[in-house]
Specification:
This protein is an alpha+beta fold and 366 residues long. Helices cover 34% and strands 24% of the residues. β11 (226-228) and β12 form a beta hairpin.
């Protein structure tokens, strides 16, 4: 969000400084290890309707954002494939019914398509020998998150944005040391104290731990993100270019950033082997953990304050597990707030925006 906003504002003619406590690699950011799936229908099973609307808004916006970058970023919109083993058929039936209801209630969502053995073989032949049925969610997509971070970095350099890497900065410090019109805080969990200082609604920021495995699997040729209905949690396999796959699923209520647990690694790796035998010879490139910045209700929020004659402060946080799916929508709302003082897009999408007035908050959008 920080890089995207910095690029967008610089392209609008603003003079932008970017402060980052890590280096330009973004190694300290959850965005670097994410799967970057853009799947509003799949996520509708576990999130609120306003997040789904943000995801629908963001899909075409991603095309615009990526096309406007100087460096290429892998993006595809081949849909999502849902698979399950026979013993999990009842869970699959409930999941399918939930998605069918959501697609009926929101006409912008394409209806899920049930696949039999032949149609599964037509759409994803590499898994047809192991599964007799599945579910296809049209129009959903994904991008390469690391390529995007690198492309945004190139754009920052081309736009001559002043990037202060390896620099810890607090909003109050920036207000005191510089004459900025606005300070925008996109630090995720790094903004926990600042968020709390401006929070009177008892919606604290917390971390939700995720663990992912990055693999090189030349014997596997999945064409789209694939999710496996699992008794503990839905496992996803997100293909990147050149036979790279990002595998994950875990959601642990913890700010712990220690290494991947043995249990998680065994469950992830054994589950994907049941999807495709080619994963047995895959090479483990990386096992990584990060914590998603999450508010109490698991929904994103923007807080802002702007008093006449004073510089403004904007805090953007709580994108949880949906960061890539909804970030263009959140960015569009933030840009409207900065330029106009209000956001029709936020009202339409249901993004919560609160104007901070001293220690009080005024709800702008609900």
């Amino acid at each position: 969000m920080g890089r995207m906003l910095a690029v967008a504002l610089a392209k609008r003619g603003a003079q932008v400084d970017l402060f980052e406590k890590g280096d330009s690699s973004a190694d300290l950011s959850p965005a670097r290890i994410a799967a970057a799936m853009l799947a509003p229908l799949a996520e509708s099973a576990i999130t609120e309707d306003n997040v789904v609307r943000m995801g629908i808004h963001s899909l075409p916006r991603w095309k615009d954002i990526i096309c406007d970058l100087s460096a290429p970023v892998y993006f595809q919109q081949n849909g999502t494939l849902i698979l399950w083993h026979r013993q999990d058929a009842s869970d699959a039936d409930r999941f399918t019914a939930h998605l069918e209801t959501n697609s009926r209630n929101n006409q912008q969502l394409a209806a899920p398509q049930k696949l039999d053995s032949q149609s599964l073989r037509d759409i994803e032949p590499s898994v047809a020998d192991r599964f007799a049925q599945g579910l296809y969610l049209p129009n959903e997509g994904q991008l390469d998150n690391r390529q995007l971070l690198d492309a945004l970095l190139i754009e920052l350099e081309l736009l001559k944005v002043n990037c202060h890497w390896n620099t810890l900065a607090e909003p109050e410090q920036l207000h005191a040391d510089h004459d900025y019109d606005w300070v925008i805080d996109c630090r995720g969990l790094g903004a926990k104290a600042a968020w709390q200082a401006h929070d009177s609604s008892h919606n604290p920021l917390r971390g939700v731990r995720g663990e992912v495995v990055r693999l090189y699997a030349p014997e596997v040729n999945l064409q789209r993100p694939t999710r496996l209905i699992h008794p503990r949690y839905p496992i996803y396999i997100a293909p990147k270019e050149n036979h790279i796959y990002v595998v994950g699923a875990t959601e642990i209520e913890s700010d712990d950033l220690s290494e991947v647990s043995v249990r998680s690694a065994m469950e992830l790796l054994s589950a994907i082997y049941t999807v495709h035998s080619g994963f047995a010879e895959a090479r483990i490139l990386e096992m990584a953990t990060q914590c998603r910045p999450t508010l109490k209700d698991n929904l994103p929020e923007i807080k802002f304050s702007k008093h006449q004659g004073q510089s403004g402060l904007m805090l953007i946080n709580g994108l949880y597990r949906h960061g890539f799916m909804i970030s263009p929508a959140v960015m569009d709302c933030a840009l409207e707030l900065l330029e106009e003082g209000n956001s029709k897009t936020a009202m339409d999408l249901g993004l919560r925006v609160n104007k901070v007035l001293g220690t009080q908050e005024e709800g702008v959008c609900a």
